[in-house]
Design goal:
The complex is a heterodimer of chains A (116) and B (119).
Chain A: E1 3-5, E2 10-14, E3 19-21, E4 24-26, E5 32-39, E6 46-52, E7 59-61, E8 64-69, E9 74-79, E10 88-96, E11 105-106, E12 110-115
Parallel strand pairs in A: 2-12
Antiparallel strand pairs in A: 1-4, 3-9, 5-6, 5-10, 7-8, 8-9, 10-11, 10-12
Chain B: E1 4-7, E2 10-13, E3 19-25, E4 32-38, E5 44-51, E6 57-58, E7 67-73, E8 76-81, E9 90-98, E10 107-110, E11 114-118
Parallel strand pairs in B: 2-11
Antiparallel strand pairs in B: 1-3, 3-8, 4-5, 4-9, 5-6, 7-8, 9-10, 9-11
The chains are: A mainly beta (116), B mainly beta (119).
């Protein structure tokens, strides 16, 4: 069985602060993909990143960065110099490669509120 | 730009009526699509997998006769909430996997969601 845990339900920061969202996953599969999605107040989930289980390189995209640590089964997401537009719910998700039909397992989500 | 569209974005209906929600992949074909339900401040709950050319696969606890799914073409899946009741009010989201070409490697792209309110 797969499981994704996002322990932080809500984080509130002031603009320009950095914020790190934790994601811990469980799977017996050796090959899998991890994802982060952003869900702004409009409701549409926006794809942010996909990471292969064999690629532990950290990735940076603008103000976003991701830290994948296979040894601790974690895939944390950091927003640097947060902005009000970053206010959203962020979901971490797991996709085992052997899973039939591309079924994603989602974490509970972390609500980020960036105050001006 | 958006790769998955969903229509309508919002619908209000009376109890007992049926509501159809459409999900389209815009620039790619999808032999499978997924339907999720999301309650306020909660995560996404997978309802079913829509399969082109065959029956949908429902998750445990989801009523097949209540939530009818039809994968009419390689770019269109529909979810019909039959005889809707207030407890069916929710945010319904569809998704379609794109890329990869191999099972388990695709990235799922999500539609903008449909907010259903049953009075």
């Amino acid at each position: 069985a797969q499981k994704v845990t996002q322990a932080q339900t809500e984080i509130s920061v002031v603009e320009k602060e950095d914020v790190t969202l934790d994601c811990v996953y469980e799977t017996r599969d050796t090959t899998y993909y991890l994802f982060w999605y952003k869900q702004p107040p409009s409701g549409e989930l926006v794809f942010l990143i996909r990471r292969n289980s064999f690629d532990e390189q950290n990735e940076i995209s603008g103000r976003y960065s991701w830290n994948f640590q296979k040894s601790t089964s974690s895939f944390n997401f950091t927003i640097t110099a947060s902005q009000v537009v970053d206010s959203a719910v962020y979901f971490c998700a797991l996709l085992p490669v052997k899973a039939a039909g591309n079924k994603l397992t989602f974490g509970g989500g972390t609500r980020v509120l960036v105050k001006p | 730009g958006a790769v998955v569209s969903q229509h309508p974005s919002r619908v209000i209906c009376k109890s007992g009526t049926s509501v159809k929600i459409e999900c389209r992949s815009l620039d790619f074909q999808a032999t499978t699509m997924f339907w999720y339900r999301q309650f306020p401040k909660k995560s996404l709950m997978l309802m079913a997998t829509s399969n082109e050319g065959s029956k949908a696969t429902y998750e445990q606890g989801v009523e097949k006769d209540k939530f009818l799914i039809n994968h009419a073409s390689l770019t269109l899946s529909t979810l019909t909430v039959t005889s809707a009741h207030p407890e069916d009010s929710s945010f319904y989201i569809c998704s379609a996997p794109k890329g990869g070409g191999r099972a388990g490697t695709d990235t799922q792209y999500f539609g903008p969601g449909t907010r259903l309110t049953v009075l």
